[in-house]
Specification:
By secondary structure, the protein is mainly α. It folds into three domains: about 150 residues; about 30 residues; about 30 residues. Helices cover about 90% and strands about 0% of the residues. It is built from six helices and no strands. α4 packs parallel to α5. The longest helix has about 70 residues. About 10% of the residues are buried.
Length: about 220
């Protein structure tokens, strides 16, 4: 694609529409900026060559105008010496030189118009480039924010977090069981186990039975 068609396409392009249609907006805006920068460099280079051509042509025009003045002086000298033939030849050469100078002046004016077009294109390209860079900064900021939010959500809703909380629940259950075993010792058993409490009850019954038997034996002996 030529520089002029690329410049027109870039100037006419709507950055927002390009991003809306892009699958990867960050990559698209980066490529757009690179294209704008490359085109801007080429346009400026072309403008620089045009300016150099203008200066060269103007110097040539000045040399031709000086040559035309010299031929005019020669024609005057020839007439003064009675050499009309030489005067006519000098004037013809003067006309040829002036014609070349006039053609170059026309070329210079064309280059001036071309340079004005370059200046306009450069201004538009710079405006588009600034717009694209501004969009890029905003886009990258939004992308960074979105990535941080996605990471935060992955941390709070991801499988690893769920597994971690599940392990916490298992650990809490184990702690509850350990605490329950400790608290069971403090039930109404004076800090003793249930087996010990029932053994005490059986021992108490045996002592009572033995006491009653002893009373009955004494009573028989006395009778």
């Amino acid at each position: 694609m030529g520089i002029f068609s690329r410049t027109r396409d870039i100037v006419a392009a709507n950055v927002n529409e390009l991003l809306d249609r892009a699958e990867d907006p960050a990559k698209t805006i980066r490529l757009v900026i690179m294209e704008m920068e490359d085109t801007l460099v080429e346009v400026r280079a072309s403008a620089a060559r045009t300016i150099a051509d203008q200066k060269d042509m103007r110097r040539t025009v000045m040399r031709l105008e000086k040559a035309a003045a010299d031929w005019e002086e020669k024609a005057e000298l020839a007439l003064a010496k009675g050499r009309e033939d030489l005067a006519r030849a000098a004037l013809m050469e003067r006309q040829r030189v002036l014609g070349a100078a006039g053609q170059l002046e026309g070329d210079v004016r064309m280059l001036e118009e071309q340079l004005a077009g370059y200046e306009e294109d450069i201004a538009k390209l710079e405006a588009k480039l600034n717009e694209a860079r501004s969009r890029q900064a905003a886009l990258l900021s939004r992308l960074e924010t979105a990535e941080k939010r996605a990471k935060a959500r992955a941390m709070t809703r991801g499988q690893r977090v769920a597994e971690a909380f599940s392990r916490f629940e298992v650990m809490e259950r184990r702690v509850d069981l350990a605490e329950g075993r400790v608290e069971a010792w403090d039930l109404d058993t004076g800090g003793r186990s249930l087996d010990d409490a029932f053994a005490d009850l059986r021992a108490s019954d045996a002592v009572a039975a033995e006491l009653e038997a002893l009373k009955a034996r004494i009573a028989r002996q006395e009778g």
